[in-house]
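Here is the promised in-class demo. Please do not try to memorize the tokens; focus on the logic of going from shape to residues.
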């Protein structure tokens, strides 16, 4: 069974320590009640991932664990087969003992767009909401974060993260909790909170922004990356049914509308630092993610539109600072 004891030990003497009053009970319920049928199988695979301390670990320019020289060809092939049992791999890429996990998303490209605009992560406590398999958490740690906590309710993402962490060695202060943000008590403790690729999946975007604010310390920085449309502060796309074949897309605001939402939630210094149309090279099917991908979601006759006729995915990065909250909004 996946254990969270190392996380509890780490936060016991930190500004997250009051989390210990509620979190063990929340995660205990998850461990007892989670019914995902593949979780026992995935946990058995995790128990087989026992390898020597990697001779190379790089989280600053990539996520590279091991050069491949420590393992025999047979061991590398076995490891590749074990990691393949966690498919589909969506966020990455990872290099593990010479094995290149070519994920659906080139998440390193997104990080290259985000990194130049955010405050230095050196010695900061960071929360990554909707972290997926944890690729960006390793990059955050590689850029100097003191502690990185990710939350994502997907058991598969948790197991993918655990696989990478166990091969890298469990000593790194990077942790994934299988929870949604609505399950977290307000902490007012993180220096930086990321929400990348989450907002458009929320039925209530304002509530999501308030939940993010509740995790930040006063003066802390919020980094949002989300789908947007063109338009003024009143422009918001609400798909009638699906968007890009996804049935869980609720609100796609313009940059101006999202800026207004953030200001209404008492964030200050709100600024858009990047807008980028998602390319077919950044999101695609691979040997590690064989399902449909972006090319299948777009109109084959006009890739500027989704298959439903909506504007093709365009993503913006917005940064804001937590200000004194207006109690009327709470």
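The designed amino acids, position by position:
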């Amino acid at each position: 069974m996946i254990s969270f004891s190392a996380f509890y030990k780490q936060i016991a003497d930190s500004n997250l320590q009051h989390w210990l009053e509620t979190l063990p009970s929340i995660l205990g319920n998850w461990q007892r009640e989670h019914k995902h049928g593949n979780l026992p199988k995935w946990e058995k695979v995790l128990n087989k991932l026992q390898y020597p301390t990697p001779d190379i670990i790089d989280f600053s320019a990539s996520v590279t664990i091991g050069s491949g020289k420590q393992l025999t060809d047979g061991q590398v092939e076995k490891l590749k087969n074990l990691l393949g049992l966690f498919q589909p791999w969506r966020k990455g890429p990872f290099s593990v003992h010479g094995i290149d996990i070519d994920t659906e998303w080139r998440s390193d490209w997104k990080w290259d767009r985000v990194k130049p605009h955010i405050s230095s992560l050196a010695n900061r406590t960071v929360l990554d909401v909707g972290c997926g398999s944890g690729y960006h958490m390793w990059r955050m740690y590689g850029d100097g974060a003191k502690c990185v906590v990710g939350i994502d309710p997907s058991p598969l993402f948790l197991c993918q993260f655990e696989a990478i962490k166990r091969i890298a060695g469990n000593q790194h202060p990077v942790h994934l909790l299988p929870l949604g943000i609505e399950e977290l008590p307000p902490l007012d403790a993180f220096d930086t909170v990321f929400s990348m690729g989450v907002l458009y999946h929320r039925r209530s975007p304002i509530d999501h922004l308030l939940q993010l604010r509740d995790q930040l310390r006063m003066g802390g920085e919020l980094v949002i990356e989300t789908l947007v449309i063109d338009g003024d502060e009143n422009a918001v796309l609400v798909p009638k049914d699906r968007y890009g074949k996804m049935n869980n897309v609720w609100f796609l605001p313009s940059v101006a509308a999202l800026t207004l939402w953030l200001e209404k939630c008492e964030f200050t210094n709100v600024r858009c630092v990047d807008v980028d149309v998602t390319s077919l090279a950044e999101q695609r099917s691979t040997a590690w993610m064989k399902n449909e991908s972006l090319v299948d979601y777009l109109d084959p006759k006009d890739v500027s539109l989704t298959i439903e006729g909506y504007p093709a995915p365009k993503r913006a990065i917005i940064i804001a600072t937590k200000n004194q909250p207006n109690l009327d909004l709470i």
